[in-house]
Amino acid sequence: MKNRKLRVLDLGCGAGRHLIYMANQGFESHGIDISETGLNLTKDRLRKRNFEARIIKCNMNLLPYIDSCFDAVISLHTIYHQKIEEIRETISEIHRLLRKEGFLLVSFLSEKTYSCGKGVKVEENTFVGQEGVEKGVLHHFTDEEEIRRLFKSFKIVNMELREREVEGKLRSRWILIAMA
Questions:
Q1: The pTM is what?
Q2: Residue 4: CB atoms within 10 Å
């Protein structure tokens, strides 16, 4: 398909930061999120820049797209806001949506991050925050072994643990690039 734009999905697009970047780069950009507020912000930001993107309000583990329709999917700071079974369903959906040799960029919270174990435990390595901006927000924390298990149907291209200290607190995230 000569001259076809690459089709990219921002899974959990929030306020649209990545979606705007992708649209600016000339990709056929799609975004989904469960937050009406985030989607409205995204629409406003796209409109102000005269960019186009297709935006849908939906849950990330049941996506309204046909099989093998995306060249790439990104999901940054999003997928881990679920219980492990829902994370597995979302990963299965991502795999279904990606074309053969399509790419995935995803981030996960590491078990090393300062907030791991804080809040109300929902299941193993999954907690609901009890204070501040994270109050009521579900977080699943993972390690390298679990990431490899979760993405066993993908070819892992690169996996990196990124850590930095902010105000004396360790922030630790896994960044994964994988191919379907």
A1: 0.93
A2: 8
